[in-house]
């Protein structure tokens, strides 16, 4: 069994036949680094083959959430550096293989998607087979805000929500709650935040089914599902510009709020995201979707907007990105197609 060091970024141990994985960077809301991905993958391989392990439980240290996403500052430095994003591409390569490994995991993979669960955190959670959300869950695929494209297998789920809720989530990048996550297919069960410790205890003592039976409650109604009429109508446009126009025509309220949010996002990232979600709807498997996402991520690593988006949000924190192209009208079909070109090294699964 892999050793446990309390100072490590991933804590691993086993209790009564349950493998426990805790993401342990609470000050960074457990943002995923490449070494963390490389620590989790072999543990899951071991546990899949270990007859003494009957289930896996994954959570995040601290009170703020499971995981805020990938360590984007590291990606920023990689994409600005002399290797032109080599380290970023290597991180995504291994991260997406881990996402596929979670998707293939045959034993119960219980993940506590409490608090903030965004980007790469969604990838650690959404492919599991027992996905728990709570009253504090704040889930999002906010990539377009940093000139990036939803990844970690997220476009598989975004393309398969009821109606066009997934496009709304992808193009706004706005967070949604536990009730929405269940309605959209991103989660399975709703457990009150205050019951999580007891829930974990029962998983270890009595098994996953007993814990779900004891603590899962009716989720609150999905606010997004209740707004599906205008969302389906407005997001059916051919282009992001058409979608924006429809949202603005809809009048005051949540549609206008969505339009205002989308208008702040990277025009190229929005255009690629719309195409990526539509293409993902036609792809059969998680692996197929991850291969496509590896191409779009590699495209983002070459782009101006990914570095500029991280600079504006996280490095300089001026919240004033200078996007290029600077408008949706300036984005060409060729610009979008370039993101779907084969990667230098295509993503493969062993």
From TrEMBL:
One of its GO terms (cellular component) is cytosol. The lineage of its organism: Bacteria, Bacillati, Actinomycetota, Actinomycetes, Mycobacteriales. Residues 18-340 form the Enoyl-CoA hydratase/isomerase domain. GO terms for molecular function: 3-hydroxyisobutyryl-CoA hydrolase activity. Its EC number is 3.1.2.4. It comes from the Bacteria. Coiled coil: none annotated. Keywords: Hydrolase. This is 3-hydroxyisobutyryl-CoA hydrolase. It catalyses: 3-hydroxy-2-methylpropanoyl-CoA + H2O = 3-hydroxy-2-methylpropanoate + CoA + H(+). It is an enzyme of class 3 (hydrolase). GO terms for biological process: L-valine catabolic process. Pfam families: ECH_2. Gene3D superfamilies: 2-enoyl-CoA Hydratase, Chain A, domain 1.
């Amino acid at each position: 069994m892999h050793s446990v060091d309390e100072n490590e970024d991933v804590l691993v141990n086993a209790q009564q036949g349950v493998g426990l994985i805790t993401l342990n960077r609470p000050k960074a809301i457990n943002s995923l680094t490449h070494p963390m991905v490389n620590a989790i993958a072999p543990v899951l391989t071991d546990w899949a083959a270990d007859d003494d392990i009957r289930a896996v439980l994954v959570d995040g240290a601290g009170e703020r959430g499971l995981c805020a996403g990938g360590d984007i500052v590291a990606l920023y430095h990689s994409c600005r550096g002399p290797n032109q994003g080599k380290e970023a591409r290597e991180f995504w390569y291994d991260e997406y293989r881990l996402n596929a490994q979670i998707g293939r995991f045959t034993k119960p993979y219980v993940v506590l998607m409490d608090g903030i669960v965004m980007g790469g955190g969604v990838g650690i959670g959404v492919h599991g087979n027992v996905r728990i959300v709570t009253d504090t869950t704040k889930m999002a695929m906010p990539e377009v805000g940093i000139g990036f494209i939803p990844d970690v297998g997220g476009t598989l789920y975004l393309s398969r929500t009821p109606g066009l809720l997934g496009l709304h989530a992808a193009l706004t990048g706005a967070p949604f709650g536990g009730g929405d996550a269940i309605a959209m297919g991103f989660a399975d069960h709703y457990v009150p935040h205050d019951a999580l410790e007891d829930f974990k205890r029962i998983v270890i003592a009595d098994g996953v089914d007993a814990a779900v039976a004891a603590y899962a409650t009716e989720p609150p109604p999905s606010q997004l599902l209740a707004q599906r009429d205008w969302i389906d109508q407005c997001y059916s446009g051919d282009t992001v510009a058409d979608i924006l126009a429809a949202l603005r025509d809809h009048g005051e309220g949540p549609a206008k709020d969505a339009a205002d949010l989308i208008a702040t996002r990277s025009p190229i990232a929005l255009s690629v995201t719309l195409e990526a979600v539509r293409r993902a709807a036609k792809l059969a498997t998680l692996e197929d979707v991850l291969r496509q996402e590896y191409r779009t991520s590699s495209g983002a690593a070459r782009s101006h907007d990914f570095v500029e988006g991280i600079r504006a949000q996280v490095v300089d924190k001026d919240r004033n990105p200078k996007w290029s192209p600077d408008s949706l009208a300036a984005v060409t079909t060729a610009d979008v197609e370039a993101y779907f070109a084969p990667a230098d090294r295509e993503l493969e699964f062993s």
